[in-house]
Design goal:
7 helices
Amino acid sequence: MKYVKQFLIILAVSFIGECLKFWLPFPISGSIYGMMLLFILLLSGCIKVGQIEDAAKFLLDIMPILFIPSAVGIITKWKELQEIWWQIIIITIVTTIIVMVVSGLVTQTIIRKSKK
């Protein structure tokens, strides 16, 4: 029952994120709104980490399986992607580097602030 409650909390926050996507005129996906909302709720203490920890760990453990549909989609659309494959590779490399740099800088900032 504990896992069901934790999943329901995560699903409720995700649903609210999807509703925000519908109501707000910004080109931001509902999952981003949901993650920002969950982050704010965790920071404010409205949701404690223990209330969603086990379900979140489970979702992280199965995350590689969730990429299978995307990979199958790429395989099925290969004919259309052949014309622009090099552009996709460049975009993937550049965005990966940007994410790594930003993640590293944010982590360093948080570590420095926690030491003070």
